[in-house]
Amino acid sequence: MTEYFFFPKARKKLFTDRVSILKKLNLALDEVQAARPAAVALIGRRRIGKTELLRYWVATLKRKDVFPIWVDLQEGGSAPIALARYWYGCAAYWFLEKDRGSPARYLSYMDPDTALSLAVEAGNRPLSETGLAIQRELAKEKPDERLLLSMVFDLGENLAQDSGTHCLLIIDEFQDLSLLSNFKQIGDIFALFRSRMQVQQRTLYVVAGSAVRLMEDIFSSGESPLFGQFRTDYVGHVGREDSSRLAVKLCPELSPSDLANLYRLTGGHPYYIHQVARSCRELLSTHGPQDDLVTRAFVMEASFAAGAIYQHCQYVLETSLKRARGYAMLKNIMFALASEGALTLSALARRLKRKAGEARTYLESLMSVDLISKTEDNRYTISDVVLAYWLRHERLGLVDATGAPERVLGELLADLQERFSQVTAELGRAKEFELYYFVESHQGKEVRGCRVPKFRRIIKNYLLPDGAEIDLFAINDETWAFELKWKAKRVGRKELEKFVKKIRTNHYVVVSLAGFTAEALQFAKKHGIHLWGSEDLGQGG
């Protein structure tokens, strides 16, 4: 493999983890070389590292009797003729050039006439014969689209048979193949794909896709022609140690506490780790060491339009919503979940002013494109915590982090710490301790000597005129302010004083996961502050 075009040396050095999947891929290749059928499907969210994993595998493959062909269906187009032309060009490039060419050389193969000319010049029989057959078919008034696709689907196998080698056929964004089923001549594209795949003996199919739900349907639904034909593996987030290894490769100056914070904020998502670590390196070179280095880098990348994470989240949201119906309403649901956290179907239906059945249809659409998921306690939540964070700030219209006032950055840093505290304190149980739902369900009931009235309105993340935020603000004839403290340390007097100063209200309620100090208990008794603990939120409704 070339060190320039397909997978440069610098990218090889950054590659981290995925050892288990690499072993499985090599075992699958062993199977095909031993004349036993094998096919692998890699499933994972966008930018999780599927393509990088496969590029690394291909670039480091040391089997002389194996040649790869790489097909990216997002690049190839969503129409049969366009895909056939593109597929042929990819096969010709990879077999003849073995990725030793430049980007310009690669692009020249995307012209079928040029690719055919190069194949004839090289004296390659399968490429020449297939190229001429495609040329003849395309010259007809109404080309046979099924025939065109069948020819390119067979091309890797024909090259392997002719050369006495084996073909490693990698198809990226495989779910996009489903778009071809919309064409009358094609019918079920996966039935056609399987019919060609089943007669091949020297080709290992490795496909990857980022539309998780759709990929699962393609390979796991009993109604799919590809059911049982592929072994599926999931590519997920990396662990804490691999997160640190990747980050240090990009920014060696990161301290152990920096690395822990980086993992906390990114959740082990390789793309987020990469971008935040890169931003840390830039901040260190321009501003020197900072106590909040990682948090500041994350905010700059995720909250401002120039940030890579911001642009990634924007792309994910827009492309995903385009695949679902009801764009405006779906986007409103995403904003609601981002600002209010996990919500039940009934709570969402009330906010949307829609019937439960209609709201459920919208939620199923969002789940089908992997933007949200359903928890065990039947609440709907945004699947990616970073995407949820981005959505909360997307409407602020922040453009350039370098020109942002320190006050704005400070507010975003404080917001970020608060938003992620739930995740870091107790991921497994944070959802059930969501104060909003507890208060909503305990109206008219007593909690630790405090009778919760029936409210006319309950507002989550209530913004004050000075920009400060109250976790929960409730209104009836009087006003109630609620504050959640999820850090794994007891709440002290200073935190209570700060809360009281933040807002003037009739009733104050503070909830602490770790309890309260003796001074805090005395202060609360003196000022009539209601103190609740996790055991209170855990009681039945």
Question: Top keywords for this entry?
Answer:
541 residues, Arc Repressor Mutant, subunit A, 5-stranded mixed β-sheet, Rossmann fold, 5-stranded parallel β-sheet, elongated, alpha/beta
Record the strand order, biggest sheet: 2-3-4-1-5
In total, the number of domains comes to: 4
**Helix content bin:** 40-55%
In CATH, the architecture of the largest domain is: 3-Layer(aba) Sandwich
Helical run tally: 25
Give the C-alpha Rg: 28 Å
Question: Which fold name is given in CATH as the topology of the largest domain?
Answer: Rossmann fold
Low-pLDDT residue intervals, each spanning 5 or more residues: 422-433
Give the rounded overall mean pLDDT. Answer: 87
Query: CATH class of the largest domain, please?
Result: Alpha Beta
- The CATH homologous superfamily of the largest domain is called P-loop containing nucleotide triphosphate hydrolases
- What spatial form do the alpha-carbon principal axes imply? elongated
**How much β-strand is present in the residues?**
5-15%
The biggest beta sheet is recorded as: 5 strands, parallel
Task: Give me the secondary-structure topology.
Elements: H1 9-14, H2 19-33, E1 39-43, H3 50-60, E2 66-72, H4 73-76, H5 80-97, H6 103-109, H7 112-122, H8 125-138, H9 145-163, E3 166-172, H10 189-197, E4 203-209, H11 212-220, E5 231-234, H12 240-250, H13 256-266, H14 270-287, H15 293-303, H16 308-322, H17 327-340, E6 343-344, H18 345-352, H19 356-368, E7 372-374, E8 379-382, H20 385-394, H21 406-426, H22 435-441, E9 446-447, E10 450-451, E11 457-463, E12 469-475, E13 479-485, H23 493-502, E14 507-512, H24 518-527, E15 530-533, H25 534-537
Helix pairs in contact: 5-7, 5-8, 5-9, 7-8, 8-9, 9-10, 12-13, 12-14, 13-15, 14-15, 15-16, 15-21, 16-20, 17-20, 18-19, 23-24
